[in-house]
Amino acid sequence: MTGFTRRDTLKIGAGALAGTTLLGYRPAFGEVMAADVPAPKFQVEKGAELRVLRPAKFVQGDETLFLQNTERFTQTTGVKVRVDNESWEDLRPKTAVAANIGSGPDVVLAWNDDPHQYPDKLLDLTEVAEYLGKKYGGWYPIAERYGKGTDGKWIAMPIGASGGAIVYRKSWINQAGYETVPTDIDNFLKLAQNLKKNNHPMGFALGNAQGDGNTWTHWLIWAHGGAMVDEKNKVIIDSPQTVAALEYGKQLYENFIPGTMSWLDPSNNKAFLAGEVGLTANGISVYYSAKNSTDAAIKAMAEDIYHAPFPIGPVGKPTEAGLLINTMVFKHTKYPNAAKEYVRFIFEKEQYEPWQKASIGYWSHPLAAYSGNPIWTEDPKHAAYAEVMKNMLWYGYQGSLGYASAATLADFIINNMVSQVCSGRSTPKEAAAEAQRRAERYYRT
């Protein structure tokens, strides 16, 4: 299996357009949207009702517009829809329970490659996915990777990914001797040391955080050339590259604010907005909260908040990660046509573009046409999140997605390996060896 990088072309048909997109050109929506693509016609079942399970909001606009779009669907089709917003930590186990017992929510916005843990329990969404791809300029390769099962059929459709960029206070970075966040890891470490000296330390989550912990710990390993598995799904995490990554991570951690071992996804948001840290890894939610705060001091902080990509490590190329939500429909639904129609509806421009805008780009898009959404150009600080799904690597890199990749991520093997070293509980070599043993329990040959 061959992976892809941010340099790979978009699969949008016209070579010239793909080339200009890669060079930074963002087309207007109509340039890549094919308005004449006929929508699939699903005969919605009489008396249909749906239950949708999704992650709780991190930005209010996400939830507000999602619920408004759902209400619009009900007004259009007559199908009643109940939306349950579940905490990030509880979403995965509750989804797994529904899959195992064959009842519960009809539609789930699940984490990352969770659908690949139970593909036989999911409805085939190929007809919907192919329609959306044709109409909206094509799916990014990462969306196809997360969406398709081993037989090439779509078992889920990624609706967006939250990018884990660097979030920083520009004035404090300047005081630490840097104009912006360095693009190399050596200077990034020096920046961390200077920030600590100035009492504006950085801090990254080291608890079992679905978003922020996974994002930065995977970047750390990938940036040094490490990976959980190779292209044949052989576990290779116990490697010199991983050991080097852990040694660097330990040095970085020594300059963190105390307490990050227990940080979950809300923790760095709170620390940043409280002025306790000068740099962290997060989606755009910190900036969103500051801009929309009723507290004058926090609102003023928004002017000093900037974003940057993670530095490039010895591997010599970007190794970004992102928290992806993957829309799927369980076979146990009594109303499969209504469910497929609902999923199609929330991906359409009339619903998707306002939802993305209300979230100020918290969820980056999987379809090329949405790169033309004005949200990416109306504020330069949004730009770091504009192409998350175009650039990100997948959890389970460099191998294929399936039960093993989903299970190792759910078991927080990478997070735990990094935290063991940072806390001093294990040496880098011991932690890498333990991660190898844990992963091999899932990747059985």
Query: How many separate structural domains?
Result: 2
Spatial strand sequence of the major β-sheet? 2-1-3-8-4
Low-confidence stretches: 1-30
Annotated CATH homologous superfamily of the largest domain: Periplasmic binding protein-like II
The string of secondary-structure elements, in order, is: HHEHEHEHHEEHHHHHEHHEEHHHHHH
Helix fraction by DSSP (H/I, runs of at least 4): 40-55%
What's the tally of helices? 19
Give a quick precis of the structure.
With 445 residues, this protein is of the alpha/beta class. It has two domains: 219 residues, Periplasmic binding protein-like II (D-Maltodextrin-Binding Protein, domain 2), CATH 3.40.190.10; 185 residues, Periplasmic binding protein-like II (D-Maltodextrin-Binding Protein, domain 2), CATH 3.40.190. 42% of the residues lie in helices and 11% in strands.
Task: Give a verbal description of the structure.
The chain starts with 14 loop residues before the first helix and ends in a 5-residue tail after the last helix. α3 (60-77) packs antiparallel against α15 (349-358). It has helices at residues 15-22, 29-32, 60-77, 88-101, 126-135, 141-147, 170-175, 185-197, 212-223, 240-253, 265-273, 285-291, 296-301, 336-347, 349-358, 388-391, 403-410, 413-423, 428-440; strands at 49-55, 80-86, 107-111, 157-163, 165-169, 279-282, 305-308, 322-329. The chain has 2 domains: 15-162 and 321-391, D-Maltodextrin-Binding Protein, domain 2 (3-Layer(aba) Sandwich), CATH 3.40.190; 165-319 and 411-440, Periplasmic binding protein-like II (D-Maltodextrin-Binding Protein, domain 2). With 445 residues, it is an alpha/beta fold. It has 19 helices and 8 strands. The strands form 2 sheets. Strands 2-1-3-8-4 form a 5-stranded mixed sheet, sandwiched between helices. Strands 6-5-7 form a 3-stranded antiparallel sheet.
